[in-house]
Amino acid sequence: MTTRLRVVGLCGGIGAGKSTVARLLAERGATVIDVDGIGRDVLTQDNVRDAVVVEFGDGVLDDEGHVDRGALAALVFGDRSPQSRSRLSDLEAISHPAINKELARRLDALTGEMRPDQTPRQTTDRHHLVVLDMAVLVESDLGRLPGGRGYTEVVVVEAGREARLERLVGRGMTVGDATARMASQVGDAERRAVADHVVVNDGDEAQLAGEVDRLFDRLAAGSVTSEERPAPGRCTPDD
Description:
Strand order of the largest sheet: 2-3-1-4-5
Shape: globular
Distance between the termini: 42 Å
Oligomer: single chain
């Protein structure tokens, strides 16, 4: 019998510390799949790149003919106007099916790799913890795969607005750009509405590590499979 996967969706607003939580979970033995990284990778696929050009024009290509993610982001994250939200939806309609296809391939590969005679540290009662690290969970169908093979639980990382802005500016973003990116995402209330676990990241990394220790212990205990419960519900910014 093949070991089952316990698949968890991890999300949080930009600057909340989602990627740090993902790294800490990986250090504790979870397999983390960078869904945002897959989103960047699929833009290099010929069919996805060509569809993006048809939708957004040659102006989103760099001098070598690759998708310029900065130029594309300027179109879809420029402001909160209905036009920008529509442009973001247009991009997601192209990229999200390709991302989910790659996610399904990776999860299938992990299922085949994890045999019942293996006893890795993160496996309890023949389940293996997999974390889907994604910026867009609540407002999209990313990670919601056919047959219930996607995530079955949601972890939300939260931090105060000022802390998030400080982190984003520290990464080199302007206050205006950081504010626009934050405004383009759903708010804490929408994310919390579908959360099974909430991690608050308003302190230093030592405090966060303690939170992640407790989270990992909960996720590593017991067995949850896609057959036992559906993925949490989905919200949209206008709900």
